[in-house]
Amino acid sequence: PDTPAVRKILQEANSTFQEIGRLQDFADTWLSVLSPEVTDTLTNSPTVDFIRDYLENPLFAEQFDSAIEERLGADSWLTAERLVGFLGGNTTTGTNYTWVDAINNTNAVFQTLFNYLQCLELDKFEPQATERDVTVRGHELIADNTLWAGIVFPNMYDSDEVVPPHVEYKT
């Protein structure tokens, strides 16, 4: 039956899919808000310009490289030159991977994820008033090839507000 108690069970069952919905929302937020903001910051920020200029100074670059080598070891991939190239968004400094590439790759991942998740119906469970209604709705969903299952709770009644300690069901 379509009761508050059954709705609680269905809400809990649907919560599994809510996390996937949050991932879809985050992908959308990244693509529409965060990515443009990060791009704008890396393109137009005086602070990023200052860091690039500072790292291009040979004296500071040498100190930076020494500090990184001390902390990460002699084979560190992180150098002032590579960081300048990464922050510069171009490959003229010998760096092959820049922030532009990182943003483009991240955007591609989130766009693929967003496109895929749009194909999923995340609100999978819906209450019906009677077992007959479950059957009728099930036939409609079969016609669309979207039926997962029909579940009837025989020990729950229209007046039930609380989920009983032992729930019976049949499929």
Account of the 3D structure:
By secondary structure, this protein is mainly α. The longest helix is centred in the first third of the chain and has 41 residues, at 4-44. The protein is elongated, with a radius of gyration of 28 Å. Helix content is 64%, strand content 0%. α1 runs antiparallel to α5 (99-118) and α2 packs antiparallel against α4 (80-88). It has six helices and no strands. The mean pLDDT is 88.
Uncertain stretches of 5 or more adjacent residues: none
The beta-strand count equals 0
Q: How much of the polypeptide forms β-strand, as a percent range?
A: under 5%
Coarse morphology: elongated
Q: What letter string, H or E per element, gives the SSE order?
A: HHHHHH
Mean pLDDT: 88
The rounded Rg comes to 28 Å
Provide a count of the helices. 6
The SS-based structural class is mainly alpha
Taking the alpha carbons of the first and last residues, their distance comes to 14 Å
Summarize the amount of helix as a percent range.
55-70%
